[in-house]
Amino acid sequence: MSEGPSGGQPAEPAVARMLCDVRALAGEPRESSGVLWKLAESGRQLDANLIRLPAGEHIGTHAEPDLDVLVLVVAGDGVMNTPEGTLPLAEGGLLWLPHGSTRGITAGPGGLVYMTVHPRRPGMQIRRRSDLDR
């Protein structure tokens, strides 16, 4: 067993467990916008977010240059705009966004709740100047 973050107590082993009920979170007041839940467990290799967009709101066009992303539509509907065309979003839809892909999302009349999952980005590391000059 490895040592914990403070260097004293052994780290607890990761175990499978229920994290949340995304359907219950999706049913909360529809006026709220933004992140409803995010994966925050230590030692994880993934990042995940549950996001709500109220009716008609959108996330502007953007790209993820380094990471593939899975998008699962939990509730509501909307569209994803890509350079290749518009993809309809509806409850239960699962989309794969390969790294480098460009997209924008617009919620439909009932709003949109969706989950994103992708590999965790490595944290920033402080390096010695001599390491950077190599």
From TrEMBL:
It comes from the Bacteria. This is AraC-type arabinose-binding/dimerisation domain-containing protein.
